[in-house]
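My current task is to audit a protein record that another person submitted. My question to you is simply how this chain folds and whether the tokens agree. This is what I was given:
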Amino acid sequence: MKMKAIMKSRPSAGAELVTVPVPQIGPNELLVKVKVTSICGTDAHIYAWDSWAQSRIKPPLVFGHEFAGEVVEVGSFVKGFKQGDFISAESHIPCGYCYQCRNDQQHICGNLKILGVDTAGCFADYVVLPEVCAWKNDKSMKPEIASVQEPLGNAVYTVLGEDEDVAGQNVAVFGCGPAGLFAVGVSKAASAGKVIHIIKHDFRRTISQQMGSDLIIAYNDPQLKDKIIQATNGVGVDVVLEMTGNQKAISDGIDILRKGGRFSAFGIASEPLINLNLNAMVFKGARIICINGRLMYRTWYQMAGLLNSGRLNPAPVITHKFKLEEFEKAFAQMKSSDRQSAKIVMFP
């Protein structure tokens, strides 16, 4: 049995639509028919074949790690899922036996593999998923919403941490990519006070408003810090959510964080070294929390609660839909210089 897939066939920019055999499952795995998949920044790095991709990816590889689909076959040891279940994927594949896995930290497993990076991914008609990485959805959930739960979970973890509360607190979100836009929505859904969004691309201003931002400021506004301090009655924000990895955003975030506040870092820096201004953080008595992935599975339960409550609606962030065969148009749209898009999904 054959299927179509998007493959990084060789160590160069771009990808190919190929026909390959449907993969075979092991005893602890599920075979899932992909209903919809979405493009992540990691996929864009792989597609462009930048320095990170060159150091990590081993072609040939079917890539992609954000998706939702229907279980069509279950391995002989699988107990929690059956044919017909509608699932989304936790992309972090834990080993189950390392120090981290045995200390409730599967998301940062010492032998971590990532779907579509270290194993065959979901830009295809079918994908193999370990049972431990499957999350069962209600069948009434829209497939495109189900497909973006992996990146939405990044935002939930960034906002709520392991045991944080933003209710009534003033929050600044740096970054207007999908993660930043999701973080705005999660903050409002979690009853944050004032949510201030610092954005780079004006196209995403309307999306930010739809997600619930109270104040939007351009990242290059020379009065950025003054506006935020004024908006918080001279105190500064209680929580900074840094979703970019950009040096200016990090520095500005530290400057506008109140004494005793929380700085949650999710963005990945393109530079090898970033100036964190540790002295400023120490004298503020601030807390720094670094976010990697999603807690397995506390974050997923928190996300389900927010979605089921109706307070969190990620739909405005999904701006474009393509057929899987149109992947070149999808990647071009995602990387357009004017960034006239946010989250892009593809349908096999």
User: Anything to note?
Assistant: The chain has a mean pLDDT of 96. The two ends are 16 Å apart (CA to CA).
